[in-house]
Batch of 2 targets.
Target 1
Amino acid sequence: QVQLVESGGGLVQAGGSLRLSCAASIRTFSGYVMGWFRQAPGKERELVASISRSGGRTSYADFVEGRFTISRDDAKNTVSLQMNSLKPEDTAVYYCAADRVGLGSPKSWGQGTQVTVSA
């Protein structure tokens, strides 16, 4: 059974930073592609960032614009998302996701953590 638990969300002013963390209860964590999604009220869930099984490759949505960094620590079974220069439009619930193949349709999701950016 795969379980993901996010933490680190909160309220921050525009231009500020937050670091989200995802703790994974996965027996073979290194074998999973990991990613972060977000969903704002009234909008569809969208992929923010992903990281390969090896950790050597990362990808980001266009709206990130160089502001975010995804990383993983396979020794600790964690994935993080460092978010800098936050904008009000970044306000959303952020979800950690995992899949053995890819993130087109992840098999495992966390419960989500709220990020609110004030103007």
Target 2
Amino acid sequence: QVQLVESGGGLVQAGGSLRLSCVASGSIFSRLVMAWYRQAPGKQREFVAQISSGGSTNYANSVKGRFTISRDNAKNTVYLQMNSLKPEDTAVYYCRVLSPDNAWGQGTQVTGSS
């Protein structure tokens, strides 16, 4: 059973940066497709970014050019570097395993203040 623990959320001024981390345990991390999702108040949870076992990436249009997903297989960790944060980025951010397992982390709050 894969377990995911996110960290790195916080409150930042618009235009600022944060780096989220997600540590995975209970699986062979290098085989996992990892992703970040977010859920803003009153909205559905939405896809943000994903990274394959080979390192290829995909991003939601809303974060392209501002967010970068990466992974460090030696540390069993996936990261989300968030730059140029906007108030509309405010949400709880969730780490997720897409394949071959399917699991979610607990989430970490990110607030971009105006």
